[in-house]
Design goal:
One of its GO terms (biological process) is photosynthesis. InterPro entries: PSII_CF48-like_dom, Sialidase_sf, WD40/YVTN_repeat-like_dom_sf. This is BNR repeat protein. This protein is mainly beta. The protein has one domain: Methylamine Dehydrogenase, Chain H, CATH 2.130.10.10. It has a 4-stranded antiparallel sheet, with no helix packed on it. The protein has a 4-stranded antiparallel sheet with strand order 5-6-7-8, with no helix packed on it. A hairpin with a 5-residue loop joins strand 9 and strand 10. Helix 2 runs antiparallel to helix 3. The longest helix is centred in the first third of the chain and has 17 residues.
C-alpha cells in the first residue's frame, strides 16, 4: 500500500514538473519537428549537457539548443527529428551525443548537436526514457519509467531491451513466478509495470555504475549494468539525481530530501535543507559541496559538511537542471527555459 502511494506521488509530481500541457507523451505531427520556434528558448527545458566546448540543452516537443559563447543570443535552437519531449542528453566526446525522452525516443548527433537522427522510437509502449549513459563511443544504456532499460554495443544503431528482475521487491518476484505458471499473458502484462522508475544513472570514478529511482531505489553495478545490487536505503520516496564528489556521493529527490555517503556507500546521512521542495539538478561546487536546483524555483548551496542554505528562489517555475559552461558560468534550465545564474 505504501509503495503504491509513493509511486502515485512520484508520477504526480513528475507531471507537475512538466506542466499539464506536456505530461503525456507527445504524438504531434513530425512536420513540427524541424521548425525553429523563436519562443522555444522560454519553453520547458529539462536538461543541459556539457563536454569540453560543447554544451547542449533539450526539452519539450523535441526542442534542442546549442550554446555559443560568442553569439548573441548565446543559445541557438537547431532542427530536431522528433516532437517527443526530450528528458536527458549526454555526450561521450565533444562531437558524439545522445538524447532520450518520451515515446522511448533516442536520437543521436555526430557533429556536436548541430544535426540529429532518430535511432529508436516506440510510442506504442507509452513510457518515457529518463536518462542515457555511454561508457565509450559504442557501448551505452538508456533507462526510464517502469524499469525501461536498453543497451547498445554499436553506438546506438541497435538497442536491445533488458529486464532487471534483481531490482524487483522480493514479494513481486514471488508474485510473478506464481503468475507465470498460471497465466502467461497476464504475467507479461504485470511484469512490464512492477519495476520502479529508473530516473538517473552515472558512471563512478572507479568504473562502477549507480542508478537511482522510484521508491528509494539506489543500486550499484560493477559490470556495466548487466547485473545490479539494490542497496538498503533510508528513504522510500523517489530519487531523481545522484552525483559523485571527491569524498562520496549525494542522492536527491522528493520533498527536499538529499542524502550523502562516503565512497563505500555504507552510511547515508541526511542533508538538512530549509525547504521541502523536490530537488532535481546538481553540480559540484569549488569548495567540495554542491549547488542544487529544484521545484518552486529553489537554488541552494550544500556545504561539504552537509548543511543546506537557500541562495535564491524564482517564483512561478520549477528548476530541473544546472550546468557550468566552458567559461565557468552557471546555467539553469526549467519550466520557463534557460537562464544564466549571476
Amino acid at each position: 500500500m505504501l509503495s503504491s502511494m509513493l509511486r502515485f506521488i512520484s508520477i504526480f509530481l513528475f507531471a507537475v514538473t512538466l506542466s499539464p500541457s506536456i505530461a503525456i507523451a507527445s504524438s504531434d505531427s513530425l512536420s513540427l519537428s524541424n521548425q525553429i520556434q523563436p519562443l522555444a528558448i522560454k519553453s520547458i527545458i529539462l536538461d543541459i549537457a556539457v563536454k569540453d566546448e560543447t554544451m547542449v540543452a533539450v526539452g519539450e516537443r523535441g526542442h534542442i539548443f546549442i550554446f555559443d559563447e560568442k553569439s548573441t543570443p548565446k543559445w541557438r535552437q537547431v532542427p530536431s527529428p522528433t516532437s517527443s519531449h526530450l528528458t536527458k542528453v549526454f555526450f561521450t566526446t565533444p562531437s558524439l551525443g545522445w538524447a532520450v525522452g518520451h515515446d522511448a525516443t533516442i536520437i543521436h548527433t555526430q557533429d556536436a548537436g548541430l544535426t540529429w537522427q532518430v535511432q529508436m522510437s516506440s510510442p506504442e509502449i507509452e513510457k518515457p526514457l529518463m536518462d542515457v549513459l555511454f561508457f565509450d563511443t559504442d557501448n551505452g544504456v538508456a533507462i526510464g519509467a517502469y524499469g525501461l532499460f536498453y543497451r547498445t554495443d554499436n553506438g546506438g544503431k541497435n538497442w536491445t531491451p533488458e529486464y532487471h528482475e534483481e531490482l524487483l521487491f522480493e514479494e513481486d518476484i514471488a508474485y510473478l513466478a506464481e503468475l507465470k505458471a498460471e497465466d502467461e499473458a497476464l504475467y507479461l502484462s504485470e511484469r512490464s509495470t512492477l519495476l520502479p522508475h529508473f530516473n538517473r544513472i552515472i558512471a563512478t570514478n572507479d568504473g562502477c555504475l549507480i542508478m537511482v529511482g522510484e521508491l528509494g531505489l539506489v543500486s550499484v553495478s560493477d559490470d556495466s549494468g548487466v547485473n545490479w545490487q539494490k542497496l538498503d536505503f533510508v528513504y522510500e520516496g523517489s530519487l531523481f539525481n545522484v552525483i559523485e564528489s571527491d569524498n562520496g556521493f549525494y542522492v536527491m529527490g522528493l520533498r527536499g530530501n538529499i542524502f550523502q555517503t562516503g565512497l563505500d556507500l555504507n552510511r547515508w546521512d541526511q542533508v538538512m535543507l530549509p525547504t521541502k521542495s523536490t530537488i532535481n539538478g546538481a553540480i559540484l561546487a569549488k569548495d567540495g559541496g554542491l549547488r542544487v536546483v529544484g521545484n518552486a524555483g529553489v537554488i541552494l548551496d550544500i556545504t561539504a559538511n552537509g548543511k543546506g542554505e537557500l541562495v535564491t528562489q524564482r517564483q512561478g517555475e520549477n528548476l530541473v537542471s544546472i550546468a557550468r559552461d566552458p567559461q565557468g558560468h552557471i546555467w539553469v534550465a526549467g519550466t520557463k527555459g534557460l537562464f544564466e545564474l549571476k
